[in-house]
Design a protein that fits this description.
Order of helices and strands: EHEHEHEHHEHHEHEHEH
Structural class: alpha/beta
Helix content: 40-55%
Distance between the termini: 16 Å
Shape: globular
Strand order of the largest sheet: 1-2-3-4-5-6-7-8
Bound molecules: 2-phosphoglycolic acid
Oligomer: single chain
């Protein structure tokens, strides 16, 4: 899986133009082993559905509330997200944790609600710079996974996606994690998933995100524990995203064949 979160950028027209350009650029790529997804703003999802489906690009939404309906002014329910045509629902991005009070516990409520509505939760986890400095990254990641997936039924596991995004690696001030560091933490995540769900944990893709760019994408994806990439800035120009995807393709194919 390779995808991008457009954050609070690109309105309806820009999103449609971006997805249609991306679809044209990527039209020749085989998709059996490669899922490409784009997560635009809420307002742009519905208008982009046709363009995305013609281009075999899966759409997602960036957040939702856990209740189906109610007196929750300004919130969007899982039913509403589904109505837009989004399949993936991003939950717990570090910007939501930092600016909007999202916690591991609200992430869990959202994950359960998403699964109950046949959405595929893309659960974002990652340690802050402070947690890294204190040497508690592994504990933090294990806690985030255990709480996010608390009470999740094994039959829903095939819909779960995890993105490991160290908070210190995200955005303009971010420093990309070294491939080796990222691989090590992804293993910690995998081990926690195995502790919770035994063999079935292997079906859950764990992506890496945080300052992925055309220079580090190949070495990141070469790591055995990295199953895909979740990209911000380096994917927001269709031509650049296309080049990045093509640059990792042979490594990707080799990995999928193994
Ligand atoms: P970035 O964003 O690639 O621009 O660092 C990653 C993210 O926020 O998921």
């Amino acid at each position: 899986m390779i995808g991008t979160n457009l954050k609070m950028y690109k309105g309806v027209l820009e999103t449609r133009r971006y997805i249609s350009e991306l679809g044209e650029l990527l039209f020749d790529l085989p998709r059996e082993n490669l899922e490409i997804f784009v997560i635009p703003s809420y307002t742009a999802i519905l208008p982009a559905v046709d363009t995305a489906s013609k281009s075999s690009i899966v759409l997602g939404a960036q957040n939702m509330f856990w209740e189906d309906s109610g007196q929750y002014t300004g919130e969007v329910s899982p039913i509403m997200v589904r109505e837009t045509g989004a399949e993936i629902i991003e939950i717990g991005h570090s910007e939501r944790r930092e600016h909007f009070g999202e916690t591991d516990f609200t992430v869990n409520k959202k994950v359960l609600a998403a699964l109950g509505h046949d959405l595929r939760p893309l659960i974002c986890i990652g340690e802050t710079a402070r947690e890294k400095e204190f040497g508690i990254t592994a504990e933090r990641l294990a806690t985030q996974i255990k709480v996010a997936l608390f009470n999740v039924d094994k039959e829903h596991l095939s819909n779960i996606i995890v993105a490991y995004e160290p908070v210190w690696a995200i955005g303009e001030q971010g420093v990309p994690a070294s491939p080796c560091y990222a691989n090590h933490q992804q293993q910690v995540i995998r081990e926690t998933l195995i502790e919770m769900f035994s063999e079935q944990a292997y079906g859950i893709p764990v992506l890496y995100g945080g300052s992925v760019n055309s220079e580090n994408a190949v070495s990141l994806i070469s790591q055995p524990a990295i199953d895909g990439l979740f990209i911000g800035r380096a994917a927001w120009e269709a031509a650049e995203f296309d080049r990045l995807i093509r640059s990792i393709l042979s490594t990707w194919t080799r990995k999928s064949d193994d």
